[in-house]
Specification:
5 strands, rod-shaped, mainly alpha, three-stranded antiparallel sheet, two-stranded antiparallel sheet, 184 residues
Length: 184
């Protein structure tokens, strides 16, 4: 018997594994004992059986999903802390270390870091617009590219390690969550 269902990994709903079409009608949800349309029985119309191979899935493995959540949590904590400190710290004190960057721009970066940190966690946690998570991660990648360049200018290549690794972790999250994957 060619019948069954599979669970759609996006919606978690059961859907037919095989779809049956005849006379421009979808017969997939009909009872197995339901008679076929007369035109199919007489051979005037074809019975179309459309199915899919079972097996591979675009859904991430459980281990990858756990790794993504761990990295998202760590990055969110880092960016929430860094952005919060930049918002609290007086502008004069911040511009002492970075005289070439205006204070308003450092405040802007602080707000973007806080929003990015929230964007790494809240969409998946609340299951509202989970597609925002990779966008938040991509925005943080851009910030970390700038941080890496400034670190190289001020401290040489040695100082670029932490912003570079942080940016690579954000790339991992952006790539891992880019497809419309469920946040489990």
């Amino acid at each position: 018997m060619l019948r069954g269902t599979i669970r759609d990994y996006r919606t978690q709903q059961r859907r037919p594994f095989l779809r049956l079409f005849a006379c421009e009608l979808d017969l997939s949800h009909e009872s197995v004992d339901a008679p076929l349309p007369e035109a199919v029985v007489t051979g005037a119309e074809p019975l179309l059986v459309i199915g899919a191979m079972a097996g591979g899935s675009d859904a991430p493995s459980r281990k990858l999903n756990i790794a993504l959540w761990i990295v998202q949590g760590l990055l969110a904590a880092l960016f929430l802390f860094a952005g919060g400190v930049k918002l609290i710290m007086p502008i004069e004190e911040m511009t002492k270390e970075l005289p070439s960057i205006p204070g308003w721009f450092l405040r802007f970066i602080a707000v973007m870091e806080i929003l990015g940190g929230l964007g790494l966690i809240l969409p998946g946690l609340l299951r509202i617009q989970p597609g925002l998570t990779p966008l938040a991660a991509a925005g943080l990648v851009i910030i970390m590219i700038g941080a890496t360049v400034i670190s190289v200018q001020l401290q040489g290549p040695v100082g670029a390690g932490i912003p570079l690794v942080t940016g690579l972790l954000a790339v991992f999250v952006a790539y891992g969550r880019w497809r419309p994957l469920p946040h489990r």
